[in-house]
Amino acid sequence: MADSFSSDAFCSQKKIWAHFQNHAAETFDAAHPRLDFLLRQIRKRFRHGHPVVLNVGIGSGYFEQQAVRQPWEVHSLDPDGCAVARVNAWKVHGHVGLIEKMPLPTESCDCVVASEVLEHLTDEQGKQALREVARVLKTGGAFLGTVPYNENLSAEQVVCPRCGELFHRWGHHRRFTAESLGQGLSQYFMIEALRRTAFPPFRGRTLAGKTRSLIRVSLARLGQMIAVPSLYWYAKKSPGSKAAKKEP
Known about the structure:
The chain has seven helices and eleven strands. By secondary structure, the chain is of the alpha/beta class. It has a single domain, classed as Rossmann fold. The two termini are 24 Å apart. The model is unreliable at 4-11 (pLDDT under 50).
């Protein structure tokens, strides 16, 4: 599904995310435009009813804070219990667990969001994750999210000064292209949108700032790495999905 930057040193990312989610939440501020975009996509496609929306990966909790303002039943999944406890206080249904083995019933969600998540998984974990998303989604349910586009994984390598262990600074395992991501998604989902883009801020910027943001989006759609492009997808669960039908 993607080029892999695998290592035994990457076997656990719990310490990384326990730190950033609980002690450096401002790290996620730059993600707000991206998450606002995903929230708009959900609102556009679920204008009626009260969908069950699951977000994978809490981060600072910005997605949850915005989502509970909607007429949705909001769920979150994260391996960090402290982050889950925080969103539970906001009337979110938090679940401690991993996307590869989700503690949710089969066909219980109308929409699953995984933004900047799949790159943190090994190839095998990634296959299990897509299978699990398809399992918890209702037929016709939506799966949307983002991953970095064509990331140079080696450029983000760092070494621990104490033990000498080499690792990716954000815990990324895999590099995605549109082709590799589409190949994986198409096993379980009907892809409605899959494209390169970027998520620079527009709100509150001057005309010059908004112009620079537009230029960045344009360059990202062309695949220019200077724009730090992402891959965005929106897909629906296929009626004949191969996902397991048994309860977790």
